[in-house]
What we know:
The protein is globular. Helices cover 6% and strands 56% of the residues. The longest helix has 22 residues, at 8-29. It is mainly β. The chain starts with 7 loop residues before the first helix and ends with a strand. The strands form 11 sheets. The protein has a 22-stranded antiparallel beta barrel.
Amino acid sequence: MRQAIPGAxxxxxxxxxxxxxxxxxxxxxxxxxxxxxxxxxxxxxVKTGEPIAGAAVYAERNGNGAVxxxxxxxSLTVPAGNNTxxxxxxxxxxxxxxxTSSQDIIxxxxxxxxxxxxxxxxxxxxxxxxxxxxxxxxxxxSLSINxxxxxxxxxxxxxxxxxxxxxxxxxSVGEAxxxxxxxxxxxxxxxVLLDEAPIFNSSHLFGFFSVFNPGVIADVTLYxxxxxxxxxxxxxxxxxxxxxxxxxxxxxxxxxxxxxSGRLAVEGPIVKDKTSFLIAGRRSYSNWxxxxxxxxxxxxxxxxxxxxxxxxxxxxxxxxxxxxxAYRSSDRFGFAADTLYGWSTTTGNLTxxxxxxxxxxxxxxxxxxxxxxxxxxxxxNNASRYSNGILYKxxxxxxxxxxxxxxIDFGASSHIYxxxxxxxxxxxxxxQVLPVRLQQEHALESAIYWNDAVKLWPKLSVQYGVRYSFxxxxxxxxxxxxxxxxxxxxxxxxxxxHYSTGEMIKAYHGIEPRFSLxxxxxxxxxxxxxxxRNRQYIxxxxxxxxxxxxxxxxxxxxxxxxxxxDQVSLGYFRNFLQNTIETSVEGYYKHIQNxxxxxxxxxxxxxxxxxxxxxxxxGRAYGIEASxxxxxGHLTGWxxxxxxxxxxxxxxxxxxxxxxxxxxxxxxxxxxxxxxxxSSYQPRKRVIWxxxxxxxxxxxxxxxxxxxxxxxFVVPDYSQRNQYRIPAYHRLDVSMTILPNPDKKQKWQGSxxxxxxxxxxxxxxxxxxxxQVYGSPPRAYQLAVVGVPLPSVSYxxxx
Length: 799
């Protein structure tokens, strides 16, 4: 049936306003009675004025404490009269505030950054010392930029995604692979956000570097489980990357120079204490490395990228703030002057923040994200331009309400998608290429959510939430009808349905409940239980070993159903030696519905009937993650081991739509064993020695197991899908960082980093492929991307 598109987003926003007004009226009428008063307020950075999330606030008189929410707000109860609050946050000076009051009071408390370089590796940077015990959620890791900078750099480039791959439960399919895999999920099952805008390709240069400029990153949070209800649209994880605001107090410049790229950032006030700006850029100059390679085809190739970030922030008094952030990145890769690949990302976010009270905050955001890919073929007879892409537009309203033991988040959002499925056009007058233009797809995704974190009893804390999402695939468009009882193929198309602009083609909706539970076993240990259901309505279509820019994003529609993931996790967390050593063991199980895979020999390039080459199955992922993290002393770091399995089963109506006879088989990114070690040794204030070692099982492949000779021709016989594995992967990286002298007050401060990537030069296999020479059976060949030690030198500066 054809339906009209509902205006879900605007209706939800209208419905939320009465709730808001009721909350305001309740707050205005409510007063604290008796001998106690309520102290609430906001913790901010003294220079930038940015709210600080995760700061610990402790009342000396009665021992009550609180942790600031994402808007920097806190609330706690203290006795009336004289009180002293102590505020701590990793990387900042401890602050003490004394006050006398007989009634409720609202405070604004600024923190100053510590003047001495921190010596510890902050796996949970910026959090209270016992955050891994007290935090309700499990499977959540926050990395500070200080932590990321201490990981040995690849070719001198500090990288957010490479640091994430050293965490338990996170992996990739190999060297220079785009994206990352979390707890058995494919890379498109990760929601990657940059200032709340989704990033549809997080890699530069086919995965060698990530798109995040380390010079402007404020914090990085990865949710492997325990995902709050405000996040949706992906079933495996959320990577939330926030860029910092420019300083409201003074101008400053920071940058860095490495072997393959350089970066520069400028920030400062436009109107002191009211308006600030931040502009940052990064550009590669990597072609000189390619020109050193002996292979002529590689030497004649080119590869480069750039990205630009900008942020403008303005304060309208103490309760209103407006910020505008923008980002642009571009990659170009040309192989031997025949084919040029190019892809780009453009995002923008306009956010208005209003504090109705120190308990109730509104964030209203308009967001845009655009990803484009093109491939230019320059051979004269085949000269052509191929392109695809996705355009995302969103409006959302997020409310945060803090009251006593409750931290409540609720809101609504609406996203519009436009999918460009592929266009091919001739690129010269003599080209023999015929133009092809696949129809675009359009979709609307709307959601409302409620999330509450509350401490029920002294030993029991709970975070629970629910998200309701609606997704509609709408016209203009065409939908093929296939012959009933037959496999979907172009030859079995019997009819075509035509939908006009705005007509509903297919709609999906559902409830996504989630909860996390923390039961304290004492001051230094806790057990955590969590459950998440998530729905994913868009899919990255790729049948290559690792995701490449030629792959495309596809909407759920009549034949491609949304993926649904249900994950349950259980973990034990224990701290030792005054919270300086953290240990944890966590297990999880995830069940996935409607997991897409591909028919043998699937054609994804400019295929107007793409659904005929896709299969839908079920998936399961399960594993155990164990880690130990030493946070203080001269030697710091972490050691983690992950056992993880990811399996797929596809049982269709016939043999053509069934894989491996319907039995479970490993996904292409299944890697059962992973061991990571990250260490940092700082014997003196100015020198840091770092090293990381990683080991993982080789990924699955499909290999020939026999061959037949028919009429003089050798015909290989391949095994069932993904029944063999390439050799294991392991690598050691080391680095030395020389810091500026903290005892000297200098305007210009610089630090040097010397790193060696793949110290012992292992030729780790990226892929194993089989090549057949006429008259002989197929032979296996191993491809290594980085098979030698790669030294690098980089220099970072600020003034």
